[in-house]
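Support request, please re-run this one:
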Amino acid sequence: MNNYLKYFLILFLISSLGVDAQEKLSLQQAITIALENNYSIKISKTQKEISTNDVSFGNAGILPSVTGDLIQNNNIQTSTVDLASGDTRNANNAKSNNLSYGVGLNWRVFDGFTMFANYDRLKELEKLGELNAQLVVQTTIANVIDTYYNLISQYKQLESTKTALEVSQVRLKNANSRYTLGRGSKLELLAAKVDLNTDTTLLLRQQDLIKNIKVELNQLLARDLNIDFDIEKQIEIDKSLVYENLKPMVDTNSPDVQTANVNQKIVELYIRQIKGARYPTLALTSGYNFSKNTSPPTSFSLRSNTRGFNYGLTASINIFNGFQQGRLEKNAKLELQNANYDLERIKQDVNASLLTAYQNYQTNLKLLMLEESNIDVAKENLDITLEKYRLGSIVPLELREAQRNYIDANARYANALYKTKISEVSIKELTGTLSF
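Re-run finished. Output below.
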């Protein structure tokens, strides 16, 4: 087997990798699978359900508590009792028991409106759970989109690497023929072999990178990591984004700003809870009880039964607790101040991130147009250079330089396309408009 045939076989084996029937995975399908399977999304949904279940009058302390009690005591005692009359009573191993059971009710009917503030706080925590779940979903979708488009970008670079490898194959064939006919040097042939090996290595590394990104995407989709699939190779760029239209969306749609707003309200409700301790608390108590007692012979009564209904009202007020009330209220107000600062900080951070992302978006759009024209020029230059090489009018070094320029142009174009799309996704994520 001559060297040319050997290299052709290597190229054939590399190109034939992954030719088996594969699943065609669109971006929409990937997002749908992630929404169904992703573990972070499942956890956030469970936490949201917990916060929803916590919103109840009972958990807020508004409803009464009713308890049932049963007590059974038994005793075996030996006793001697001397009476004032001079008589003596003896009881050996005498049994006695006490049985009581009943139902009791305790209902705090007023606690300085603390219970109502607590109920409102639970509802805000439910909103916070919903926002956290939305944020996890949005972050997961953004990660899936990022990984999917990265995969497209790497596939585009793979195609340019294959093209360069095919050119190296032609060059080796030509150099081998020239050397066999005595028209070329062995140095030229060896250089062609080295360059072909280099391009083969680049192709293998690129294929390995694509496999790793597929594993990463399968991980985000929470499915078998070994599943192989094909993807759609096109990236559509939304070129209609305008900063003046996007900026107002931050305060209303940004998950981070909405979360900070809810946290601010929670602190306000906490202040209401703290202030509730200044008011008296009133509670209603009631119950029905039954009691049965059996006593030893030395007792004055051998047995007794009681039953009946009881009710009452308890009231208490904090008169002095070592100035703790004032301290708690001051600290709560400081926490509210911090919550206000945090809200303004988050708004500024999100707006700064939006402005940066939009500037990157604009720059990447310009670079994309430039690299798109460069790739056409690089391809035309490679075709012309290859044809000249076949005619023997240029040296191999010029062909190799054209190859490098073509690969670099494709890499820059794929990278610009990917970064432009990611800038677009970042803008939509920041403004809460990322949806599929």
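The beta strands are 23-25, 65-82, 88-110, 229-231, 281-294, 303-316. The chain has a mean pLDDT of 88.
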